[in-house]
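quick one: DP6 bound model?
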Amino acid sequence: MLKFTKQQVVAEYLPDTVSPQSMKTFSFAPSNIALCKYWGKRDAELNLPINSSLSVSLAHLGSKTRILLSDTEQDQVVLNDELLAADNSFAVKVIAFIDMFRRGADHKVRVETENNIPTAAGLASSASGFAALMQAVNEFYRLELDLSLQSAFARMGSGSASRSLFTGFVEWQMGQREDGMDSIAAPLAAQWPELRIGLIKVSTAQKPVDSRSGMNRTVATAHLYQSWPMQAAADLSQLHTAIETQDFKLLGQTAEQNALSMHATMIASWPPLLYWQADSVTAMHKIWQLRAEGLSLYFTMDAGPNLKVLFNTADEAEICKQFPDMQVITPFGNQ
Ligand code: DP6
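yep, here:
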């Protein structure tokens, strides 16, 4: 049974009437990679998570969005310069998000979004997409919402978007309230300038089961999922220690174990969910082998076949030699 609808929650924070104004520039939000994953919802309408999570932002990789007033008969959503059909699933979600703020006002919009990361390839484009859309909505409707409120509302578009309003390390507190207004993300003060993230692209094809369906299936069918909230809580606390003490081994080990534990719950679902491809497993073995040989690198994976490799700048040259096609991101540096 629905406790609160999105519209009910958002309406509390909006002015009675909105005054939209076409944006001249784009809003940008970075993508993020979770080191302690969000997997499982306690409320599917509001995207309230079963566990708290912690991520690191991907600097210049992300989404930019602007909203224009349109004199067309229908709303328009343009993704990477391509006008989407009205029934395209991304376009439907974007317009549903706008409707939370438009609240029946009589105007049409044209939403323009550009991603510089492969869409739906496990590189978290929905996170940056809804965070950039939230910022754009805030400007277009001149709402002047603070970042905490924007984080809570972006979460309703996609859970991981709550973390993409910020840069660096970001923690999304699961919260307790039924309206979810304490389920928001905030950045950690700590920086880690030496930290690098390498993207190993196994496939950029659209994934067959999206995160939303994947996590719902896991919660509904995997007995193994019962241990997940405990695992996530323990990992979150380890990550805090690792970040405070700049202990790279603890950071990497915790992130890798957290990702594999999440994937274990997916595999234990029915029908089974295995996002890995043969090349994903080959890359995992290569990482374990290099680690056995003394290199300090760890991986994490989301609901897709691609790997994100964690390492420090000291090992960068050697690791790049081993993975020549890997794209390297400096989360805390100027790009
Ligand atoms: C594996 O935020 O995409 O990347 O809330 O249903 O939109 P919805 O799911 P989404 O799930 C992300 C899952 C994950 C882990 C994470 O980013 O924390």
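The first helix runs from residue 6 to 11.
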